[in-house]
Amino acid sequence: METTLGRTRLSEQIQESILDAIRSGEFPAGSKLPSERTLMEMFDVGRPSVKEALLMLERKGFVRLKRGVAPVVIEPTPESAMNAITDMVSAMLADDERRLEFYGLRMMLETAAAFDAARDASHDDIRVLEDAVSACRVASGEAEAFRDADRAFHLVLVAISGNSVVDAFHGALIEWGLFNPESGPNLKAIHSRVIAQHESIVSAIKRGDAEAAADAVRTHLSTRRDAVGEN
Question: What is the tally of helices (H) and strands (E) in the chain?
Fold first, then answer.
């Protein structure tokens, strides 16, 4: 591991040096990094610079920190990759136009997911989708409960792909606030319409009609596109 530091911020240099060592295989997943004290001696710096560097690596999903224990290298995951960019994306989503662009990305993912599900979904996949629709029926008329059930339906739809990267990215889009269930004075009527749209999606998937499934998702999500700027 390179321990000669240049002129840029010390903590950034330390985390880059450690990251290079992780990428090279010097510290594989599951191994322990040197202790904070050892790193201080290796880089000839104070504890604050080492601690900040380790926190940066933790936020990026490369190490796990626990008081009194040497940092442990962990395998990056799609979820940790999404977590690493959450702050940056949150700042971007403050702009309404940018939010619409991200919502468009969500529409693309779910439309493609429905298209593929119509071709590849197993009987078990369809049963899980139908259970998700049933949960929406049970929650109809209750704002919070229906929001959770509606959200679960969309997560299940994309999860059918079996692609962990797509699944993590889509889940992050939902967590970043790009899920705006319709609201209004007559929740029952609104929820009934949403459930009918969910049923159309599932019906097309069961028939194996990929184009119809994609169109049903596109229609469903388009009804909420104008509200995506609401925070």
Answer: 11, 2
Q: Do residue 61 and residue 151 come from a single domain?
A: no
Residues 90 and 160 in one domain: yes
- The boundaries of the domain holding residue 116 are 80-229
2 in a structural domain: no
pTM, to two decimals: 0.73
The CA distances from residue 168 to 152, 159, 175, 180, in Å, are: 14, 9, 10, 19
- The amino acid at residue 102 is F
**Pair (16, 128) in one structural domain:** no
55-112 pLDDT per residue, tens: 999 988 899 999 888 999 998 888 888 887 888 888 898 898 898 899 999 999 999 9
Query: Is residue 184 scored above 60 in pLDDT?
Result: yes
> How far is the C-alpha of 12 from the C-alpha of 88, rounded, in Å?
18
Chosen domain end from 57, 73, 89? 73
- Residue 66's DSSP bridge partners are 69
Give the DSSP per-residue string, 18-52.
Answer: HHHHHHHTSS-TTPBPPPHHHHHHHHT--HHHHHH
Q: Which amino acid is residue 172, in one-letter code?
A: A
Return the closest-CA partner of residue 200 out of 183, 218, 184.
218
The pLDDT, as a whole number, for residue 42 is 93
